[in-house]
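User: structure tokens for SAUR family protein, please.
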Amino acid sequence: MIKRWHSSSRVTRSATGGGGGSSSRSQEEEDGDEVPPGHHEVFVGRSRRRYLVGSGLVDHPLFQVLVERTGGSDAGTVVGCEVVLFDHLLWMLENADPQPESLDELVDFYSY
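Assistant: Done. Predicted tokens:
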């Protein structure tokens, strides 16, 4: 679903999953909006695209390992992953629960 914000240059893509605060949004421009309750600000890729990711996804073991591999940042949670792959990762976590035995392989695939 694509929603238009105040300006036509600001696009928010919203994917709603199976509940539990698992929705995520990507903002092409940071517009100073506060982080809604139940979401975490995540910066993805070399471009540091800003995402608002639901707590249900942030707490997922695959997401946690991916963040740990990237390392910390003063700017918040950073994921070292191409943006298009991160979009796929979010879709996968919202729609199909990856099996624990495949987590290492998936982290290797998604990380730089």
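User: Anything notable?

Assistant: Strands lie at 2-4, 11-15, 24-27, 39-44, 49-54, 77-79.
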